[in-house]
Design brief:
By secondary structure, the protein is an alpha+beta fold. The protein contains 17 helices and 9 strands.
Length: 371
């Protein structure tokens, strides 16, 4: 085990208030330590606590291997194939426990075409693998010890996003890190440390990233309370076309459906309400779909028009099929609101997407959606 002397006591400024840490998180850490394992809170939860933001999730890192964690906690299970983690359930809460990792050897990097990340290591090696200094801070709340090998706390105090190691090398390793850096810039308003010319140089690397990863990262921009800000940050750094190549300049007008939808999404997140990615995508894609209705064969049914639109759009921006069904239902119901008959009210109100479609209609009514 790493001795506590390699850790630092936390200073008063930008300190962590242990009262903000749920008891079930402390229980998991305490129990792992009772079995002589290291256990730390790590990553975004530490960054948020240092910024006096209450985290929604708490991740724990340990030198215990997954099977050792499940042996300690009866109500737990191992998940994942690329990187095995353990979900521990306590008091109806699920805590994610991961084992310290190190960079896998070249021999073990690929197995059946899948990158293998189950190369276990030390806390120092685990820190080295992380993307930004602010996300490589480990905190032991039981002993009040901070392990901060890359001075991430100092970068948080100075509101800087710094890569661990050479930025170009780290982005080449995984181009999604570029999107993560820009997302944190939008969310936290930290100094990005990358110029526009740097970013433009890295953008082509994203062409080799699977659409599914791009979609998942895109959702993190828009479902964590800073959707509206993210739209304009992405435009500033010329990345908006990567996500949404079909958006027009009108789409970003302050009274557009898109901006109203982003405001609505941010409000729901702040109020701790659920946000369905399908609803957000229905908002984002609506102008492009409306445009396609005007230029395509008017004899086609609405269902055929929707199918044609997604066949044309989805190769350019990957959308999971479950969201396409959700989006399609919302759009199909829009004409039924404007041509409502008494006998069809009951059937419409009992449609599983009625509430979402009605909320979508309200957004349209408050915006310049058809101009």
């Amino acid at each position: 085990m790493t001795s506590s002397s390699s850790h630092k006591k936390i200073s008063n400024q930008y300190s962590i208030n242990n009262k903000s840490i749920p008891s079930y998180v402390l229980e998991v850490i305490r129990k792992l330590q009772q079995y002589d394992f290291q256990a730390f809170m790590v990553g975004g939860c530490i960054r948020d606590l240092l910024l006096n933001i209450q985290p929604k999730d708490f991740d724990i890192a340990t030198n215990a291997h997954p099977d050792q964690v499940t042996a300690i906690f009866k109500n737990s299970r191992i998940i994942g194939r690329r990187f095995k983690i353990v979900h521990v359930r306590i008091d109806r809460q699920i805590i994610e426990v991961s084992t310290f990792r190190k960079k896998p050897s070249e021999v073990n990097k690929l197995r059946n075409g899948v990158v293998q990340d189950n190369a276990y290591g030390t806390v120092e090696e685990d820190a080295q693998r992380r993307d930004f200094t602010m996300n490589a801070i480990f905190y032991d709340p039981i002993n009040d010890h901070l392990f901060d090998p890359f001075n991430g706390k100092k970068d948080i105090e100075h509101r800087k996003i710094n890569f661990i190691g050479d930025p170009e090398e780290r982005i080449n390793e995984d181009p999604v890190r570029l999107l993560r850096a820009i997302r944190f810039h939008a969310k936290l308003e930290f100094n990005l440390g990358l110029t526009l010319s740097n970013i433009k140089k890295y953008i082509p690397l994203l062409d080799n990233v699977p659409y599914s990863r791009i979609f998942d990262e895109m959702m993190k921009f828009f479902l964590t309370g800073h959707a509206k800000k993210s739209i304009f940050v992405l435009k500033k750094y010329q990345l908006l076309d990567l996500f949404f190549p079909f958006l027009s300049d009108h789409s970003l007008d302050k009274n557009s459906l898109l901006i109203h939808g982003m405001d609505n999404t941010d409000s729901r997140v702040k109020e701790d309400k659920t946000v369905n990615p399908g609803f957000l995508m229905a908002v984002i894609l609506w102008d492009a779909f409306n445009h396609s209705l005007k230029i395509n064969d008017s004899k086609l049914t609405l269902d055929s028009q929707i199918k044609h639109f997604f066949n044309k759009t989805n190769p350019n921006i990957f959308i999971h099929n479950r969201f396409i069904k959700y989006i399609s239902d919302i759009w199909r119901l829009q004409p039924r609101f404007t041509k409502l008959k008494i006998r069809s009210v009951y059937r419409l109100s009992n449609h599983p997407r009625f509430r979402a479609a009605y909320d979508f209609l309200l957004l349209r009514c408050n915006s310049d959606h058809d101009q």
